[in-house]
């Protein structure tokens, strides 16, 4: 895995389409990178892959998703997020409190995931990466962006 060129983080990642053994291998590599970074999520563009791939590990469950999309978003919640691609910065931001994500799993089967709370936030954060959106873009006011004093739970 090569280190991303900064501009890949600002582009809309390309759909994957068919899930091949190569795609499954990339997902497994992303899981290793995420765990090594102690993150709870990672998106393809963060590791230099211009593809709509995300991995999320939360509450003892690992999600490896291909071409994920948010098909429903409800409610709203404020929270503080960090990002592996912007070390030392946290942002207070508003997200949907509940989401439904539709994607393909690493075997190419369609999956629908309902999530709320922190898991819903992680999915929104990672899918934003696929659209070239960073947490700093989501800040409603400059004072919502902070230099991280202490290690907060990093999203990814």
Describe the structure.
There is one protein chain. This protein has 156 residues and is α+β, with helices and mostly antiparallel strands. It has one domain: Peptide deformylase (Peptide Deformylase, Alpha-Beta Complex), CATH 3.90.45.10. It has 3 helices and 8 strands; from the N terminus they run αβββββββααβ. The protein has helices spanning 21-36, 117-130, 135-138; strands at 41-43, 53-58, 61-74, 77-82, 89-95, 98-104, 110-116, 145-147. The strands form 2 sheets. It has a 5-stranded antiparallel beta sheet. A hairpin with a 2-residue loop joins strand 2 (53-58) and strand 3 (61-74). The longest helix has 16 residues, at 21-36. The radius of gyration is 15 Å and the shape is globular.
List keywords for this structure.
single chain, 156 residues, alpha+beta, Peptide Deformylase, 5-stranded antiparallel β-sheet, 3-stranded antiparallel β-sheet, 3 helices, 8 strands, 34% strand, globular
């Amino acid at each position: 895995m090569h280190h991303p060129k900064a501009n890949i983080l600002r582009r809309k990642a390309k759909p994957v389409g068919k899930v091949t053994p190569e795609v499954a291998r990339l997902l497994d590599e992303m899981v290793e990178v995420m765990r090594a970074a102690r993150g709870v999520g990672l998106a393809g563009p963060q590791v230099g892959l211009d593809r709509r791939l995300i991995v999320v590990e939360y509450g003892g469950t690992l999600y490896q998703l291909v071409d994920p999309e948010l098909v429903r978003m409800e409610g709203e919640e404020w929270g503080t997020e960090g990002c592996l691609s912007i070390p030392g910065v946290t942002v207070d931001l508003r997200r949907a409190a509940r989401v439904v994500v539709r994607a393909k799993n690493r075997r190419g089967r369609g999956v629908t995931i309902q999530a709320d709370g922190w898991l819903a936030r992680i999915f929104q954060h990672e899918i934003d990466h696929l659209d070239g959106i960073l947490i700093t873009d989501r800040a409603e006011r400059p004072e919502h962006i902070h230099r991280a004093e202490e290690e907060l739970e990093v999203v990814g």
